[in-house]
Design a protein that fits this description.
The chain contains one helix and 18 strands. It is mostly beta strands and 296 residues long.
């Protein structure tokens, strides 16, 4: 016989005070946005919704679908298809997008890896590319060659939000996966002046193209902060996938629209006489106590 049980939890947690800068107003999500490819329909696959009119042309059969279980819609790439757009960012920039792929891990040079957003130029040149390298998200640059990769592999068949930021003055590159900073490095400085065009999904006549699905690709001509990237990945208005998560209590976490999250235990002193109550309703269903169904 299958049994179910309902459980109510009430938690009292000391109130914590976030750092002052975390509560500061964030720039609008459109500030510095120079390319925004939402892939909302087959007819508008290359449309730029940034307001800058940097529409991409569809080359070699990139397609669209609204049949992905985790998305409302997305672009589909078969390893040959690509979109071509102007070189909208060459100095400071941020590239952020959702990626889904099961491509096998293949090490090698970044300019031969499957490109997500690519500005590679043949030869020794001041270029760059955001690529899928050895199953990881990476930003490669030329003159001199430098590559910064995520720690985690993202080609796991799940939707992952990835982002790369570049500061042209300092050369600092930051790599984020699902709004988590995974790698910081210093690369070449100055403008990537050799880049005359960008492609999404493949580069003309060289290397392997990207096989998988992309959504909500954004290009900024500035460096986005960690809270801004968290808002893109998790905040209000974000284009989010349907995720199946481990809901055991030791994995609970919270993040607000400004990218602020609860601190680790003991990292912030408790404020005397201050507490917050959280009422949580859980339904423990047919699969037993290890599988909790959130009906709140």
């Amino acid at each position: 016989m299958l049994r179910t049980a309902a459980t109510c939890l009430f938690l009292a947690i000391p109130i914590w005070a976030p750092a002052a800068e975390a509560g500061a107003p964030l720039p609008g999500e459109h500030t510095g946005l120079v390319g925004w490819y939402r892939f909302v329909s087959a007819a508008t696959l290359g449309k730029d919704d940034s307001g800058q009119h940097h529409d991409a042309s569809v080359v070699d059969g990139a397609t669209w679908t609204d049949r992905d279980a985790g998305r409302r819609s997305c672009a589909v790439f078969d390893g040959k298809a690509r979109l071509s757009l102007p070189a909208v960012a060459r100095g400071d920039f941020t590239v952020a997008l959702w990626v889904k792929s099961t491509a096998p891990a293949q090490p090698g040079a970044w300019y031969n890896a499957p490109p997500l957003l690519d500005g590679d130029v043949p030869g020794d040149a001041k270029d760059f590319g955001a690529v899928l390298l050895d199953g990881r998200f990476a930003l490669g640059q030329g003159q001199p060659d430098a590559v910064t990769s995520s720690e985690s592999r993202i080609a796991d068949g799940a939707w992952r939000h990835v982002a790369a930021t570049r500061d042209a003055t300092s050369g600092e590159v930051r790599i984020y996966v699902d709004a988590r900073l995974e790698r910081t490095a210093t690369g070449p400085t100055g403008e990537r002046s050799a880049v005359t065009a960008l492609t999404i999904g493949a580069r003309p006549g060289a290397g392997d193209g990207f096989a998988g699905r992309l959504d909500d690709l954004r290009i900024y001509d500035r460096v986005l902060s960690a809270p801004e990237l968290a808002r893109l990945a998790h905040g209000p208005g974000a284009v989010r996938p349907l995720l199946v998560r481990d809901t055991r209590s030791d994995t609970w976490a919270g993040m607000d629209a400004l990218g602020r999250s609860l601190p680790e235990p003991g990292s912030v002193p408790a404020r005397s006489g201050k507490a917050v109550g959280i009422f949580y309703f859980l339904w423990i269903g047919r699969h037993g106590p290890d599988h909790v169904y959130d009906l709140s």
